[in-house]
Amino acid sequence: MLKLLEKLTQIPAPSGSEERIHNAIREEIAPFVDEISVDALGNLIAHKKGNGARVMFAAHTDEIGLIVTFITDKGLLKVSNLGGVSAINALYQRVCFANGTEGVVSLDNTNLEDGKTPRLSDLYVDIGASTQEEAEKKVCIGDTAAFSGKFSTQGNMAVSKALDDRAGCVVLIETIKQIKSHTNDLYFVFTASEELGLRGAKAAAFTVNPDYAVAIDVTRTGDVPGKLEMAVRLGGGAAIKIKDSSFMAHPYIKQRMTEICEEKGIPHQFEVLEQGGTDSGAIHLSGGGVPSGCISIPTRYIHSPAEMIDIRDLEAAIRLAVSLIEKGL
Q1: Residue 57 region by backbone torsions, left for phi larger than 0, else alpha for psi between -120 and 50, else beta
Q2: Domain boundaries, position 284
Q3: Residues 168, 96 share a domain
Q4: Could you report the per-residue pLDDT of 268-287, keeping only the tens digit for each?
Q5: Residue 63 falls in the annotated catalytic set
Q6: pLDDT tens figures, 182-221
Q7: Is residue 204 part of a domain?
Q8: Are residues 57 and 74 in the same domain?
Q9: Which of 18, 28, 194, 307 is catalytic?
Q10: Which parts of the chain fold into alpha helices (H)?
Q11: Residues in the chain where the model's pLDDT stays below 70
Q12: Closest Cα to residue 77, out of 136, 118, 119?
């Protein structure tokens, strides 16, 4: 599992450029599903046939990143965000473009007032070029880059870029591999462009037309210094979402998850996320409405190149997803 998590996190795939990560996932799951397809928005949809309710599980494959908007005469790249990129988190981090070009995010403080927090418009990416012509041999306007951040473990903790939401992808992959029996008609959707407003999930939900849906995503924690008061912590188990900014979990699915955790002895906790959303936010509004829930993986330092999870929480999320499928909704 950890080798798979390392493999997936280290594949650069900012929103809109998910092909490489989808190819890697396809290789992992192909022997365990009946059909695999890719829709018009780039969602990877795996189907495991059954005769019961149509159930959709979703985890997004894209990560936050940067997109080139302008190249200066000195060869520096002005950039905009793909998803929720913080200027503070991005500053002095490395980024990597699809063609292998690497750069460093730095700060143009020419017009920055003393003591002011920098904005994304104050940043640029330095790829080591000295002229616009030299830079244009390596990158073009509209090229996208992902942040670099190596994968490492220490005790029960794993740290990497893109745990949001490659950790969720690992949960789905391991769930697909571990299912021993099921009656429902299962669709596992590895969604594209979640960081740009749940776009892939919106399209996939209309394609699949599920009776029930469950998203797998990361969530914030309240166990580090700061203003966020939240009853989620690393090591507390899989987080059963009650509410976030995008949706309210359906009472039946929330209760079903809780019953299964209690019956199976799966460590769990409950999550109310005041800011942020998941693919369930798009799925539950599709068609005439879809009863939806979410299994969350507690994560520190979300949307940074050094996100942190507890491996035991990841394992608990896998156990919950597998049990939910085997016992049925």
Answers
A1: beta
A2: 2-63+161-327
A3: no
A4: 999 999 888 899 999 999 88
A5: no
A6: 999 999 999 999 999 899 999 999 999 999 999 999 999 9
A7: yes
A8: no
A9: 194
A10: 2-9, 19-29, 87-90, 132-136, 163-178, 199-208, 251-264, 279-283, 311-327
A11: 110-115
A12: 136
